[in-house]
């Protein structure tokens, strides 16, 4: 892909996870400097070792995306280390035990919304003013097929990801004439770290896999390819849109 991203700077949240690490790897290969944000410093250390130094540079930033100050620190770091910011990939997220809505406690609900939706709002709020000022920016928010369809037994997650989709559409319209394009991706089952969580049992995996016409899970590298395009100057006439990554499953 000829995307002319060399020398640009990106913030990627959830950078050490399956999708996040694939995105960081693709960005570095494309010559993009990356502020890699993740909850775990050890995971960031492994990421840096695995990605190497061929292409762009990685600067790690460990912290909880629900902390309002983390977004501000990420932007300040991108400016102090690389002189600016061109790209945001809002990728950090989490799942939780699969139970009916009426059995979910308020603390679990709030945590899911904070991690999967509010954290993206805080990152957007931190990066957008600078992008408006420079007249350029590319933002990619990670939503989910759950946010489009509403997964049973995953009400907090589905609600949060549905919120990401609605927020993306709204802010995409707000920035449509500013040179800052905001889009979302909606993956279905992806072979990333989330599949290894204890609440994601084999029965659930089998049921979800049966709904994918391609008959397989997606790969993090496939998601990274889509995100890289959406984060590049090659994208010029799409904003507030949701791009499907479901292997043909989508019915919306």
From TrEMBL:
Keywords: Oxidoreductase
Pfam families: adh_short
InterPro entries from the UniProt entry: NAD(P)-bd_dom_sf (IPR036291), Sc_DH/Rdtase_CS (IPR020904), SDR_fam (IPR002347)
MF (Gene Ontology): oxidoreductase activity
Domain of life: Bacteria
Family: Belongs to the short-chain dehydrogenases/reductases (SDR) family.
Identification of the protein by name: 3-oxoacyl-ACP reductase
Organism annotation: Corynebacterium glutamicum (strain R)
